[in-house]
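Dear colleagues,

I hope this message finds you well. In preparation for our joint manuscript, I am sending the Cobalamin-independent synthase, N-terminal domain (Paenibacillus tianmuensis) sequence together with its predicted structure, so that both groups work from identical material. I would be grateful if you could confirm receipt.
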Amino acid sequence: MKTSIIGYPRVGALRELKFASERYFKGKGSVEELQQTATELRAANWKLQQKNGVDYIPSNDFSFYDGLLDAACLLGIVPQRYQALGLSPLETYFAMARGYQGEHGDVKALAMKK
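The corresponding structure tokens are as follows:
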């Protein structure tokens, strides 16, 4: 019998992604630090699954914020009001998730309902 899982918690054992995201949102951490934390978490998750005998380790199950938002971005379904901000792809992603008020404009977050 071969084993797999449908995804792995992305936040980290010590909630590292949450804290890195909060630092980034408050302007106390850089995008590079946030991405480095994400990279380290993904690698640690893969290694832990491998160590524990998972045969088929899932990929592309990581999200900075929301899986459905990830799918929308992957498919290019980004409303014009967010594209018009002229932000980087990651900043646009967070603008859709959390809203954006800054030098590039003012938009509310998308209505993401669970």
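For the figure legend, we might mention the following. The chain has a mean pLDDT of 93. The CA atoms of residues 99 and 109 lie 4 Å apart.

With kind regards,
E.M.
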